């Protein structure tokens, strides 16, 4: 007997996630599209908890794009050092702030193309800003989502670009913005990278790849 299709699995997984996480508060604290953009940039290879401790300090020094553009790079770097990769991140924050003023009237642009043209802003960061700041459908793929999509047999796990394409095919577009947060929360609480007990997981116990159980 044939097993469920990817779409059938996706539908059932969405039901499970809706029961577990009917509300999906955004993990990063922010006040507007600009502060969200900076917070997401800082979150690369850093936990949301740590970013949320650092951003109030940073935004106390520079609460908007104009103040940030005036802040010396060395000062930005010193503040954000606990987030890791501070030399590169501080330069990106300073440069993108100046570019926003020069080319976008100090506003965060509402397009993937314009966002991804900014220093330090890749597709995932742009996707988070487009979905969470502007409400456009997007499916940001982080390590949790990439890992779980493979575990559940929804994607081949080759790379995050392929995972994003695969998930967009099987989940309805209106669910993407909420769903990516639900999967992140699920990964943290029920489906960790290490020490994971597949048979005890609410989703892996049903749809987990059998080869990973060994």
Mean pLDDT: 94
Sequence of secondary-structure elements? HHHHHHHHHHHH
Question: How many separate helices?
Answer: 12
Unreliable stretches: none
What is the 3D shape?
elongated
> What is the helix content?
55-70%
> If you compute it from the alpha carbons, what radius of gyration comes out, rounded to the nearest whole angstrom?
19 Å
CATH class of the largest domain: Mainly Alpha
How many individual β-strands?
Answer: 0
Largest sheet descriptor: none
SS-based class: mainly alpha
Number of domains: 2
The first-to-last residue Cα distance is 23 Å
Q: Which architecture of the largest domain does the CATH hierarchy give at level 2?
A: Orthogonal Bundle
CATH homologous superfamily grouping of the largest domain: Hypothetical protein, domain 2
Beta percentage is under 5%
Explained architecture:
- The model has no long low-confidence stretch (mean pLDDT 94).
- The protein is mostly helical.
- The protein has helices spanning 6-20, 33-42, 48-61, 65-70, 73-80, 86-104, 112-116, 123-133, 143-151, 160-170, 176-189, 204-207.
- The protein is elongated, with a radius of gyration of 19 Å.
- It contains twelve helices and no strands.
- α2 (33-42) crosses α3 (48-61).
- It folds into two domains: 6-24 and 139-212, Endonuclease Iii, domain 2 (Orthogonal Bundle), CATH 1.10.1670.10; 33-133, Hypothetical protein, domain 2 (Endonuclease III, domain 1), CATH 1.10.340.30.
Topology (SSEs and partners):
Elements: H1 6-20, H2 33-42, H3 48-61, H4 65-70, H5 73-80, H6 86-104, H7 112-116, H8 123-133, H9 143-151, H10 160-170, H11 176-189, H12 204-207
Helix pairs in contact: 1-11, 2-3, 2-8, 5-6, 9-10
């Amino acid at each position: 007997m044939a097993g469920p299709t990817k779409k059938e699995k996706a539908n059932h997984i969405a039901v499970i996630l809706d029961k577990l996480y009917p509300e999906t508060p955004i993990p990063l604290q922010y006040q507007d599209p600009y502060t969200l953009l900076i917070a997401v940039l800082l979150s690369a290879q850093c936990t949301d908890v740590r970013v949320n401790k650092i951003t109030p300090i940073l935004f106390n020094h520079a609460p908007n794009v104009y103040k940030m553009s005036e802040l010396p790079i060395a000062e930005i770097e010193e503040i954000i050092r606990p987030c890791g990769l501070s030399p590169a991140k501080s330069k990106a924050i300073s440069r993108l702030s100046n570019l926003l003023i020069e080319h976008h009237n100090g506003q965060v642009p509402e397009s993937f193309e314009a966002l991804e043209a900014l220093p330090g802003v890749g597709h995932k960061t742009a996707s988070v800003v487009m979905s969470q700041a502007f409400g456009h459908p997007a499916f940001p793929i982080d390590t949790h989502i990439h890992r779980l999509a493979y575990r559940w047999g929804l994607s081949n796990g080759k790379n995050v670009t392929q995972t994003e394409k695969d998930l967009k095919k099987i989940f309805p577009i209106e669910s993407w913005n909420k769903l990516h947060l639900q999967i992140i929360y699920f990964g943290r609480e029920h489906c960790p990278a290490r020490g994971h007990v597949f048979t005890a997981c609410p989703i892996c116990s049903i749809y987990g790849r059998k080869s990973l159980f060994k």
